[in-house]
Design a protein that fits this description.
This protein has helices at about 20-40, 70-80, 90-100, 150-160, 230, 265-270, and strands at about 5-15, 45, 60-65, 65, 85, 105-110, 120-125, 135-140, 165, 170-175, 195-200, 210-215, 220-225. By secondary structure, the chain is an alpha+beta fold. The strands form 3 sheets. Strands 1, 2, 5, 6, 7, 8 and 13 form a 7-stranded mixed beta sheet that branches. Strands 9, 10, 11 and 12 form a 4-stranded antiparallel beta sheet that branches. The longest helix is centred in the N-terminal third of the chain and has 17 residues, at about 20-40.
Length: about 270
């Protein structure tokens, strides 16, 4: 019997959060998830740092060698509206994914719970259609880009990896920032459109399936024919017949790291004395 691969409808949500307001952004997110599901989407993607905000244009009062008090207050607002993982926000997002019967990927600003709670991470959360939090990825470097040249990067990744690429960016205007936010005066010289978007969906051969979308909020939809992946890899399979494990080796450490570990009594006794 031949294997028939499914076609999955994907939704890429180009929107802005209710900036620096975790609870209001969560409400907007759940509404957009319901709208995507109503159009048949079974994979729904939101931008990075969507809850509570990507602090575009703000410096948090940082200069080389100094920090300002107002900048620390801006950071306090950002920290206060960050997301505990797991926590009430992830519970609500999981419920929304379950109600939508869809996989959900969304960027949040995660508040560290394993150490002092003072550290924030730019984190991508993955939820299954059963509502479970499947995993999280703390980004090493946030990368949001609305330039025309970013489209070439998205298409190259798709063509080189022979994979679908869903690029999701925010559409943000200066007027969306809360007027009472500490440090808001830093945006005085910024243009009204702070981020013009540029979300897109790209197929495994580098062709555009939807977008790019600029200068407005909106949701892109595309049917991802998973059979396109093996068809595209017929002549180029980067981890198959084009791989060179003799010259390149990738090791991924999947074990979580903790800031403090304790040696057992036996290890302590056997440790060499200074």
């Amino acid at each position: 019997m031949s294997e028939t691969l499914p076609i999955v409808k994907a939704a890429v949500v180009q929107a802005a959060p209710v900036l620096f307001d975790r609870d209001a952004t969560l409400e907007k997110t759940c509404r957009l998830i319901r709208q995507g599901a109503a159009r048949g989407a079974r994979l729904i993607l939101f931008p990075e740092a969507f809850i509570p905000a990507y602090p575009r244009g703000l410096t948090f009062g940082t200069a080389v060698g100094s920090r300002s008090l107002d900048g620390r207050r801006t950071w306090e607002v950002y920290w206060t509206n960050a997301v505990d993982v797991p926590g009430p926000v992830t519970t609500a997002l999981g419920a929304a994914a379950r109600d939508a019967c869809a996989y959900l990927a969304i960027g949040v600003i995660e508040r560290d719970q394993g150490g002092s709670r003072g550290t924030l991470y730019c984190t991508l959360l993955y939820f299954g259609p059963d509502g479970r939090l499947l995993g999280k990825h703390r980004k090493l470097k946030p990368t949001a880009d609305a330039r025309d040249t970013w489209q070439a990067t998205l298409r190259h990744i798709a063509c080189e990896g022979r994979c679908f690429v869903l690029g999701c960016n925010q559409f943000v205007t200066k007027s969306m920032y809360p007027a009472h936010l500490p440090g808001i005066e830093e945006l005085a010289s910024q243009p009204e459109i702070m981020c013009r978007g540029g979300s897109a969906i790209v197929g495994p051969l580098g062709g555009l399936l939807a977008g790019p979308l600029y200068d407005q909020e909106g949701t892109l939809f595309a049917d991802l024919d998973l059979g396109e992946i093996p068809r595209s890899r017929f002549d180029f399979d980067v981890v198959g017949h084009y791989a060179r494990p003799d010259v390149f080796h990738l090791t991924v450490n999947q074990n979580p790291s903790v800031p403090v570990t304790y040696a057992s009594d036996a290890e302590t006794q056997d440790a060499p004395r200074p």
